[in-house]
Amino acid sequence: MQYLDFEKNIADIEHRIDEIKYETTSQNVNVVAELERLKVKHEKALASAYKNLSAWQKSAVARHESRPHTSDYISHVFTHFCPLSGDRNFADDLAIIGGFAKLDGRTVMVIGHEKGHDTESRLTHNFGMAKPEGYRKAIRLMKLAEQFGVPVITLVDTAGAFPGMEGEERGQGQAIAACTEACLDLKVPLISCIIGEGGSGGAIALAAGNTVLMLEHSIYSVISPEGCASILWKDAKMAPKAAEVLHLTAQDLLKFGLIDSIIQEPLGGAHRFPQQTMDTFKTTVLHYLSQLDKLTPEALLLHRQEKFLTMTRLNEN
Question: Given this model, what pLDDT does residue 2 score?
Fold first, then answer.
């Protein structure tokens, strides 16, 4: 496992536990007692390390390579997934994946950014940074969901939209704006969840939902800490300070009223206990979906629009 900078003590304990398990399979009382002592020490170390994470530390957790991605959620939370490809205009962008699926026996449309888990898959999915055709695919899938009257679940996990020249040539800004508009105009329930990084317009394009959720150690911001530091201080090394200034944590955003709820992660983060995290995600989504089911299509539309208009009024004050 990749250990973060603030996890050195945790790493030492886990390595010692592994050493003892590897060195002996004996039921020697002293060995068993030592393992129990180390397990207690390990839990305390995790609790201490994760009790008051800084915004920069939370950014590192949100980006952890072992954190579950959209494909993991599709595999473990949803069933009967039927992938749908292409924007019917230019190409199929694998930075965004989606399709019909079953959630606890109910048909839904699931759409999300996919970063990939290793070098090959990260390159295939372009690290979750979508090009215009990715957002146009998302629009197509949302409209298809609306046509069949099924809810839409979006999973957000991207550092931002693809910044390359070809993206701009094919209308990146317009595609992001159109995708955001498609979210706002849906007449079916839309639940969005930031599961890792929520970066800039690349994130909001899939996150303008009736209900917006964030995992406990995810981040959501108009720009990355590194990008902000480079602009404000001309020095990417100022990223830790930028992370604090941006107020990008789930706790900050809930306080500001920009999200609806935080999904708690197991002690030590989603990267340590992915299955438990995804189970909690499922329970939370089903809870909010049952509430949105009570609204008519027109009420869903008005609920979503009023939600985001209220945010602008808060900013004005």
Answer: 85
